[in-house]
Design brief:
This protein has 6 helices and 9 strands. By secondary structure, it is an alpha+beta fold. It has 2 domains: 138 residues, no CATH class; 34 residues, no CATH class. The strands form 3 sheets. Strands 4-5-3-9 form a 4-stranded antiparallel β-sheet. The radius of gyration is 18 Å and the shape is globular.
């Protein structure tokens, strides 16, 4: 039932943006935490330059499902012959109602991103993914990170250019953010 977002190299490599202005803008206080594993491995081996502060970039914030174990148990039963749930699938609305992220948590992330100066797209139906666009400077302020610009040789002599942060993102602990892409 979990969905996997596949993005461009820039979006994938930008994973790990952090949040400090986001914490300051919330209506309720929540301790800020860094998301472990949200920095690309081996970045320190690549040459980089400071990112252009005016460059536009898009980020995505993924939120943890509140009932992950129950969701996975249902999926297992739906695909196990002989169980009462075998072959009885849920609609997207039913999944969202039973296992989606509470609207208050999704709305909190939306408010925080907007307060940081980012333009926020409509969150997905499950409330577990919020996309936002803004300048590198706004993302750096919002997430308390420094973005760097990288260029590496790809297949067929192509140069792959991407932005990435060098430290893990800081996010509000209460919002249960799992990753920032």
């Amino acid at each position: 039932m979990k969905r996997i977002a596949i993005g461009t190299a820039t979006a994938v490599i930008a994973s790990g943006l952090a949040v400090s202005a986001i914490g300051a803008s919330a209506t309720t206080a929540s301790p800020m935490v860094r998301i472990s594993g949200n920095v690309l491995p081996s970045l320190s081996r690549l040459a980089s330059t400071p990112a252009n502060p005016g460059q536009q970039m898009t980020i995505g914030v993924a939120l943890a499902h509140p009932h992950d174990a129950a969701e996975q148990a249902l999926v297992n039963r739906m695909y196990t012959p002989g169980t009462a749930d075998f072959g009885h699938y849920l609609t997207a609305d039913q999944v969202a109602a039973r296992f989606g992220v509470p609207k208050a948590r999704t709305n909190d992330i939306v408010r925080r991103l907007r307060a940081a100066g980012l333009t926020v797209a409509t969150p997905d139906a499950f409330g577990d993914y919020v996309s936002a666009t803004g300048t590198v400077a706004a993302v750096e302020r919002a997430f308390g990170v420094q973005e760097r610009s990288y260029a590496v040789r790809g297949p067929h002599g192509m140069t792959l250019r991407f932005l990435a942060n060098t430290t893990a993102p800081r996010v509000p602990a209460a919002d249960h953010v799992t990753t920032v892409v």
